[in-house]
Amino acid sequence: MDMEVLWVGIGVVVLLVILQVCAGNKKPVRSAVSGVLLGWLALLAVNITGMVTGVTLPISALSIGVSGAAGIPGVTMLVLLDMIL
After folding, report:
1. The predicted structure's pLDDT at residue 22
2. Nearest Cα to 11, choosing from 43, 46, 36, 48?
3. Distance, CA of 24 to CA of 18 (rounded, Å)
4. Which residue has the higher pLDDT, 32 or 43?
5. Is 66:35 a contact under the CB 8 Å cutoff?
6. Least packed by Cβ within 10 Å: which of 11, 21, 24, 36?
7. What pTM does this model have?
8. How many Å apart are CA 28 and CA 61, to the nearest integer?
9. What digits encode the pLDDT tens for the residues 35-71?
10. pLDDT at residue 1, as a whole number
11. Which residues contact 12 (CB under 8 A, 6 or more apart)?
């Protein structure tokens, strides 16, 4: 499971760097890495505050991939889906 999560994380970063290069961004690696880190920090923040709010998200390849690729809006979507379903 740990290797799967690692490969998903690496794949998300590589995909975002490629998208940033295609978009013509001047600093594609920095932009992609900062977006991924913000998404993962948002996922971590949701799980840390879960003791107070009662909302936690499972750490899986899917949640790490969505939060890395979509960033904070992706984590928001995961939280809303968790609350609805």
Report:
1. 86
2. 36
3. 10
4. 43
5. no
6. 24
7. 0.74
8. 24
9. 889 999 999 999 999 989 888 888 888 898 889 888 8
10. 61
11. 36, 64, 65, 68, 69
Which position has the token pair 């900062």? 34
Alpha-carbon gap, residue 39 to 60, rounded angstroms: 14
Closest CA to 38 of 72, 80, 77: 72
Token pair 């840390």: residue: 48
Paired tokens of 81? 């889906």
Q: Where do the H-state alpha helices sit in the chain?
A: 2-23, 28-48, 50-53, 61-84
Q: Tokens in use for 65?
A: 């991939």
pLDDT digit string (tens) for 3-23? 887 887 788 778 878 888 888
Written as six digits, the tokens of 51 are 């003791």
